Amino acid sequence: MPETDAVNPEKELALSPTSSRSVTETVNGSHKFVIQGYSLAKGMGVGKHIASDTFTVGGFQWAIYFYPDGKNPEDNSAYVSVFIALASDGTDVRALFELTLLDQSGKGKHKVHSHFDRSLESGPYTLKYRGSMWGYKRFFRRAALETSDYLKDDCLKINCTVGVVVSVMDSPRLHSIQVPDSDIGIHFGALLDNQEGSDVIVHVSGEKFHAHKLILAARSPVFRSRFFDDSNGQNSDIVIADMEPRVFEAMLHFIYRDTFIEDDVLTTSSSPESSASDTLAAKLLAASDKYGLERLRLLCEAHLCKDISVDSKILEL
């Protein structure tokens, strides 16, 4: 019989070459810091700074530090200092920075100190720990600053851009499936709108609202107790006497959709001369607290805080 060559399994199972790619890029973000009352900040002392609010870029928090009398004794007589500081925990955070003193004359002649255009020369700057800073002890000569277009109405404006360096492995995928955002609120909201399957009518100051006991009970411990622990839980009609219909409607909107109603609706009041406590947001805050809707309570508080300022509190006083 003729001889046959043995089959080499390695040749039969030859694998396709694989590949991967490392991508290093920056996640960028900016923050504008307005310093009102520059002349009053002078004289606070060498090494003393005014800090901006913290802001988040690349998963880390940052803050701008402005030293009106300089950061170090040798510089206080002639220069102001500006630094960007890592304000959250982190080790060996690599980033690029840009500090810009904004020209307030409209001429666009901003004073820019940028690390971005020097990245090829020295690479990103590494911040070792919380409190590490990058910036300039001699950011601007004080005498020149006080006669320049950068200072207007005793106000300075500093813009900071941070680019946090991140590296990811980009490997080819056989399949990619885009998972949509949750739409459960849309479906529950449709139940509220078309009243399908509703089993309870809530009477609020003469208005009727059709709802579903299970949904109300699932969202609010007060409704849960009323429907399942109360001897009157089998009733298909309940009365709420201490709430306006518009407030209850807004609360129902949240219970079913888990979203806030529009901002322009929240700021409406019962009359043009009403106080802040008479806005829908304020009344919805009280309702959320009464019915145990913790997330709604926090949303209301956050919304009301946006409208609180020093000037508004002075006017109220």
TrEMBL record:
Region (Disordered): 1-23
Family: Belongs to the Tdpoz family.
Protein name: BTB domain-containing protein
Domain named BTB: residues: 198-264
Protein task: May act as a substrate-specific adapter of an E3 ubiquitin-protein ligase complex (CUL3-RBX1-BTB) which mediates the ubiquitination and subsequent proteasomal degradation of target proteins.
Pathway: Protein modification; protein ubiquitination
CDD domains named in the record: BTB_POZ_BPM_plant, MATH
UniProt record, GO biological process: cellular response to salt stress; protein ubiquitination
Domain MATH stretches: 28-162
SUPFAM superfamilies the record matches: POZ domain (SSF54695), TRAF domain-like (SSF49599)
Superkingdom per UniProt: Eukaryota
Organism: Ensete ventricosum (Abyssinian banana)
InterPro entries: BPM1-6 (IPR045005), BTB/POZ_dom (IPR000210), MATH/TRAF_dom (IPR002083), SKP1/BTB/POZ_sf (IPR011333), TRAF-like (IPR008974)
